[in-house]
Amino acid sequence: GDAVVAAAAAAAAVVDDVDDVDARDVEDVEDIFRRGRAFGGGAFDAREDDGEGEGGDDAVVVVRGRAARPAVVGVRRGDAREKDEEEEEVQPDDEFEGTYAGGGAGATTTPGRAKIFIHTFGCSHNHSDSEFMAGQLKEYGYELVKDAEAADGWLVNTCTVKNPSQSAMNTVIERGLGKDKAIVVAGCVPQGDREAKELKDVSLLGVTQIDRVVEAMERTLAGDTVRMLEKKALPTLDLPKVRRNEFVEILPLSTGCLGACTYCKTKHARGDLGSYEISALVARVEQAMSEGVSEIWLSSEDTGAYGIDLGTDVAALFRAITAVLPTDGSVMLRLGMTNPPYILAHLDAVAEAMRHPAVYAWMHIPVQAGSNRVLDAMKREYTVEEFKQVCDTLLEAVPGMSIATDIIAGFPGETDEDWKETMALIEHYKFAEVHISQFYPRPGTPAAKMKRVPTQIVKARTRELTAFFESYQPHESLVGKTERVWVSDIARDGTSLVAHTKNYTQILLPGGEDERARLMGRSAMVKIYESSRWSCKAEVLELVQRDPTVARVKLSVISSEEEAVAIREKLTKGKRVRIKKPAVAEVVEGCTTCGSETPCSSTATSASRYVTLESALFVGVCVGVIGLAYAKLSRRT
User: What does the alpha-carbon distance between residue 237 and residue 458 come to, in Å, rounded to a whole number?
Assistant: First the structure.
């Protein structure tokens, strides 16, 4: 498999085998064209995989005149549209009005009336971006459809973490171009690799340009190929949204990171850390709850680094968000992926957050390797010992907590001894969830230039780790127990309901239309009667009723400002971090009226506050000029 869909598998090993993965990705893409994927009122393929050059155009580049696309009838405000093979720079706020002609005699499509299919690869951050783009397209009037063949335009949101995801993207683009679809490619691939040959004939939308998706789609449907890749301020969080799961709000905390991992291509696309203000995030949480969501997933390339660029931190964020969560369990919070270096400074705050009744006791902490030598080659900025400190501290402080982690097998230079250390780490903790991936050399990364481990050795290592992972049963202790669960999704069989315990263990419940209407988005007490490697099965005992009278719970782990500043300085030492400093009113000593170094006496008249030397001179000159003019006039008369 390529990845774990978080809502469908909370306890799963994901093994990336080069041959098998490519085949599965192609199968999945073929499946899209046969029946599509449900996406609220439209279409959306949810393949999730938590992932880890900047630059941009100063304007939108429009390549004109694709003969295969229906001709455009319309005008840009202020000038006529020309139809020749040229590139024109269009300022970002240019607007276009018109109708689109084609598809048979007399057939016309007005702006916002086309059918749009959306397909998304990658992490939960990508899925959040797609939800925002879907919301804008729908609000503008486009119809979101689940049948790719019936769509006029395709929006493909891409992932650059691994080769299989990008290969699958290429398959989607080829199929769409072959069927003369208007294609807009968004996400990390065009932002990080805009010159890729596969992207030559499609429109491109950068990761910070998602608030311009309507413009991109409209121009693409008109026959243009646009490039909107300029890096700009983060899109606002109050954009319209169509959720792929109506009960789950995916909340992006930031974009980019402070790391420089040698294998990571996402850094080229997402760039340096840029965080949303805490007030904006809290407002989005409150809005989502008012719209009826039952889960909120925090999403980020590195949750632990949140806020460093704003002069705040993740501890303050957790305090602010949990302060508005209902503690009756009607809405649950899932913390995002975090790398060890930045969470080390906040372990007490993280532990307290996960003990909160409305926060899942689960966290994704990628280790990638159990060898310090390999971690150093990866530039992961932590040691195995520090990763263990994170795990040991949290597991002790949060009873029943579950940790998910990632392993990259066959990183360049990885020796048999290095691999043994990785195996020993997994054997020690027996994580309930491990994402296992072969090393993929991503173009433009330092690791791509390193000498690779032979493929047969890499495959042998992934199979060894997979065999061990499947040898233990992390959930069998739950059989016979009564647990509270939160129901939020439908299983891949199309019938069973997917729920999770407080530590995010996946529980499958009996489905059907009646049960779906009764349980989706709700919490229930269940009795677990069966466990497997991946999940448990249970029967529903009773629904847990909401109790709006339950008081809010405030987190108490609050570091002093001096301590917080010291932590930020330590974490950002040697890094390029743009700290946004709040505006501070200038304190002026002395008297601003007369210029003295000490304030004027409070007995000064009101006039003295406004009469300055300059104003007195100006008045004197004016009086003199008027007097002279009067004297000349008197002589003449």
Answer: 42
DSSP 578: -
What residue type is 362 in one-letter code? Answer: W
Q: Please state whether 431 falls in left (phi above 0), alpha (psi between -120 and 50) or beta.
A: beta
pLDDT score for 530? 97
Letter string b/e over residues 471-492, b meaning 16 or more CB atoms within 10 A of that residue's CB: eeebbeebeeeebebbbbbbbe
The pLDDT confidence band at residue 423, using thresholds 50, 70 and 90, is very high
Closest residue by Cα to residue 463 from 387, 407, 389, 522: 407
Please tell me the predicted confidence (pLDDT) of residue 256: 83
205: nearest Cα among 286, 137, 282:
137
DSSP letters for 478-497:
GTT-EEEEEEEEE-TTSSSE
Q: Locate 127 and state its tokens.
A: 């899925």
Matching residue, tokens 């990080």? 192
Report how far residue 523's alpha carbon sits from residue 503's, in angstroms, rounded to the nearest whole number.
14
Q: Say if CB 503 and CB 400 are below 8 A apart.
A: yes
Residues contacting residue 127 through CB under 8 Å, at least 6 positions apart? 44, 46, 48, 120, 244, 250
How confident is the model over 237-288, as pLDDT tens digits?
A: 999 999 999 999 999 998 888 888 998 877 777 778 889 999 999 999 999 9
The type of residue at 443 is P
d(CA 240, CA 123): 20
Name the nearest CA neighbour of 423 among 349, 459, 371. Answer: 371
pTM: 0.72
According to DSSP, residue 405 is labeled E
Three-state secondary structure along 161-187?
Answer: CCHHHHHHHHHHHHHHHHCCCEEEEEE
| 141 vs 42: CA distance, rounded Å | 13
Burial 292-308, CB ≥16 within 10 A → b, else e: ebbbbbbbbbbbbbbbb
Instruction: Please say whether the beta carbons of 14 and 431 come within 8 A.
Output: no
List residues bridging with 364 in a β-sheet: 404
Side-by-side strand order, sheet with 108-109: 79-80, 72-76, 96-101, 108-109
- Cα separation, 471 vs 540, whole angstroms: 29
**Residue 562 identity (one-letter amino acid):** E
Residue 421: what pLDDT? Answer: 98
State the average pLDDT over residues 89-98: 30
Tokens of 513: 């239309």
Res 6 pLDDT > 60: no
Identify the pLDDT of residue 350.
Answer: 94
Cβ atoms of 403 and 363 closer than 8 Å: yes
Q: What share of the chain is helix, strand, coil (3-state, %, to 5)?
A: 35, 20, 45
Evaluate whether 226 touches 202 at the Cβ level (below 8 Å): no
Residue spans of beta strands (DSSP E) within 279-414: 295-299, 332-334, 362-364, 402-409
- What is the C-alpha to C-alpha distance for residues 295 and 316, in angstroms, rounded to an integer? 20
